User: Fold this.
Amino acid sequence: MSLGEFDLIARYFTRPTQRAVLGVGDDCALLQPTPGMHLAVSSDMLVEGRHFLSTVAPQRLGHKALAVNLSDLAACGATPLAFTLALALPRPDETFLAGFARGLLALADEHHIELVGGDTTAGPLNLCITVFGEVPAGQALRRDGACAGDGLWVSHALGGGIGDARLALEVFRGRISLPGAAFERVRCAMEQPQPRVALGLALRGVASAAIDLSDGLAGDLGHVLRRSKVGATVDLDALPCSDVLAAQPEALRRECTASGGDDYELLFCAADDMAVRAAAQAAGVGVTRIGRIEAEPGLRWVDRQGRLLAFSPNGFDHFAD
Amino acid sequence: MSLGEFDLIARYFTRPTQRAVLGVGDDCALLQPTPGMHLAVSSDMLVEGRHFLSTVAPQRLGHKALAVNLSDLAACGATPLAFTLALALPRPDETFLAGFARGLLALADEHHIELVGGDTTAGPLNLCITVFGEVPAGQALRRDGACAGDGLWVSHALGGGIGDARLALEVFRGRISLPGAAFERVRCAMEQPQPRVALGLALRGVASAAIDLSDGLAGDLGHVLRRSKVGATVDLDALPCSDVLAAQPEALRRECTASGGDDYELLFCAADDMAVRAAAQAAGVGVTRIGRIEAEPGLRWVDRQGRLLAFSPNGFDHFAD
Assistant:
């Protein structure tokens, strides 16, 4: 079936604009920023075999492509406004496109944002989304504000944790195996992460620094520590995890939670524990205190007895592994 | 040489921010829009073998990747502000990156804009840029404003024209050959297009509709006609072309100018010829009147004697050829 670029855009991605002044179909989209707000912008590119597996359902991929971008807005404390999508596809596969658009636009609707423009081309599968949000001037959560004495926190689903996405990847890699229901749960964590937008908004004025967990806790925390010129001690056994991951051997559990990657939870620092718990409750998200920020540079891992551990997980580097 | 993602960003793409509140290195970049302005946004994705050839010098590719995006802002009449870059590379090739960054940032400097964020990943070569600009509310040039009676115009270098990029492509394809100096001129048109930002700004309040020529005049004009619900007659022999292209056989010249693609000139409509010439002079760019907008739908081609031609060039479709 022959489907040209313009038909393709029209069929799957064009909907009436709600908030944008001008949406898909002109040279540029036009947005009307709210006076006094800063515009928050982030771009993430997803490549097959690196950010998703060829086995992923198109609908889940559509969800994930937008979710990882919304997660950046969440980490900034920004309210999502709109996004653009640039898409390279080997061929205009309608089954893929219909599912992809469904997952993408369902998550967009959930966050009341719209697709305002983009590009489609033939080429090796590649998904590049740029999201726009807004945040009152001076209130954005940044990576450079952590202070000695702050608590260190991570978000997670109520009753869940971090590391499930990595555990699912290890199943796909054939390193471990899981029963069907357990596999489906961790696979869902990998393929359909939930961006913590509501929590990011609730943490404005509460968190001193924040980042979203995309490359693994150890690596992402390292960015915050370097930018904030501080250090931290983290209780490796306090890292929250799901029942499925809790049932795994200690070494695997620690690896998945501390350096797993693809979590898209918020890692943040705050001076006031009560305020953090109130924000989490307002957002309907779980949060766990996993350590503290210290003046001494570097990252120290301890176990539940407070003993220093010789544990140095490597943050996931897109060129290193 | 091992070069991780974060080193790579720091080495080639991080410079002190000038205008952005927060630039490369956090979850989001923060921009401060000017009150009363609309934000213009556009994304273009470039794929090897489709938007550029593997033979292109990295510096020229860096220029072109940003130029094609700036061209969308030009077609909208927007002042460029900033851009993000998402880059998939098979490996972190420092020679490529150094050249690419040089070409990219030189054009950015020329337009006083800065790289505020983005993403890098391993993967088949893919360049995705999103540009941001601003335009006073209600003054953006759009595709849907052409009116019967308007003149139809195309921009070009002084003494130049459109179609050179397509002619260069035909040399690369082995269909024709050109002497060295002539080839270098048309190759330069293909590899280093000049976005007509100054002209776009000068056409605010003058042009009734505008689009940038990326997929070929015939195809791009079709978008304007459909969106504006009008038709047009175009004088095929009035299409401006360089000396190199003028020396080619008539059929090839017509094909290159009328459906060439990759021109990144502005195609626009305007009621007032004098105002167009004044805008072009202010911008230091050539403009040629190539036809007129008519109430009758459809696109009619005539020769210099006004005779109707049976000429139906196809707009370039990223999935069709």
Notes: Residues 315-321 of chain B have pLDDT under 50 and may be disordered. Chain B has two domains: 5-136, 151-302.
